[in-house]
Amino acid sequence: MKSLNIGDLKIPIPIIQGGMGIGISLSGLASAVANMGGIGVISTVGIGLIGNQTNANYRNRNIEAIRNEIRKAREQTVGVLGVNIMSVITNFSDMVRTTIEEGIDVIFSGAGLPLDLPKYLGEGIKTKLVPIVSSARAASLLCQKWKQNFNYLPDAFVVEGPKAGGHLGFKAHDLDNENNKLENLVSDVLRVTEDMKAKYGKDIPVIAAGGIFDGEDMYQIMERGAAAVQLGTRFVATEECDASIEFKNAIVQAKEEDVRIIKSPVGMPGRTIFNKFLSEANEGKRRPEFCRNNCIKSCNPKTTSYCISEALLAAYQGNLTNGFAFTGANAGRVTKISTVSKIFTELKKEYQLAKQRFK
């Protein structure tokens, strides 16, 4: 298994742990993954809603919280750490500036196109910028805009297919489109990155995400040109994951038929473990009285069927009566709570077996 190089940043094991919020991937999970040689990722969305931040102001609570989580993670690892910052959050600028100030290694950004992300870089800053895209068109547009406006190109791309968990970068009717299979998307984006290398001499590795579960999945997609993979769901049911035991058990107990696509208040399809809360939301029984935090740009509290930040916060805390769990398509394959170390060992063994079998 080759290491992943993102510019001058070397990642020994080409595995990225996906950012999962609210609160599912914080310093505990991120540092454990980083210690195994991958990239551990802290989710910034709604981070100020958890923990013991002292500031009453929502904006300042988020800034305080992400500083604390990055510093806690740094105390537990010397490995590579990243953050996931959704471009649709209202405090996007705060999160980008703060994480750069804290010296984060990588910023992953999706849920929309982070067209102005490079403007936050300054002289001497080594933070790598990695957009999350779901099409070659999005990758090409970001390269064009970043080069034109900032003379900068992405340091890597995460290409997220339709089997991913949480918010998806597709319209609901496009999820089963043959062209949107992960292997096809990776090939399409690779053509964009090869063109950028030919024009500007910059290597832009492509990281495959969405539906990657075991080492054979890793091998197959990396044989098609992906430089690394990103996994989320597989890391939820671990001792190190920052979610509540109730949240982890929801993943372990989920069957294939429990995993469904919903329309999120964010305005995108989302993949979840369907439960009574979501059923009640569909019936109009979970409408918020008012918006407490104005956390998502694209959410309209007057028309939304529920407050997504409150629902995800409740789930993180273990209250699945008032919330729900986002998950990837392979939740039904998770059968027990494991450890990050065991998962890395399994993935590497499965990868080697696949390599022997298919060579």
Q: What does this protein look like?
A:
- The chain has 359 residues and is α/β, with parallel strands linked by helices.
- Helices cover 36% and strands 15% of the residues.
- The protein is built from eleven helices and 14 strands.
- The protein has helices at 27-35, 58-76, 92-101, 136-150, 182-200, 215-223, 233-236, 245-253, 276-282, 308-316, 340-358, and strands spanning 4-6, 9-11, 15-17, 39-43, 80-84, 106-109, 128-133, 157-160, 166-167, 206-209, 228-231, 259-263, 269-273, 325-326.
- The strands form three sheets. The chain has an eight-stranded parallel beta sheet with strand order 3-11-10-8-7-6-5-4. Strands 9, 12, 13 and 14 form a four-stranded antiparallel beta sheet that branches. It has a two-stranded antiparallel sheet with strand order 1-2.
- Helix 1 runs parallel beside helix 2 and helix 4 packs parallel to helix 5 (182-200).
- The radius of gyration is 19 Å and the shape is globular.
- The two termini are 14 Å apart.
Short description:
This protein is of the alpha/beta class and 359 residues long. Helix content is 36%, strand content 15%.
List keywords for this structure.
alpha/beta, 11 helices, eight-stranded parallel beta sheet, 359 residues
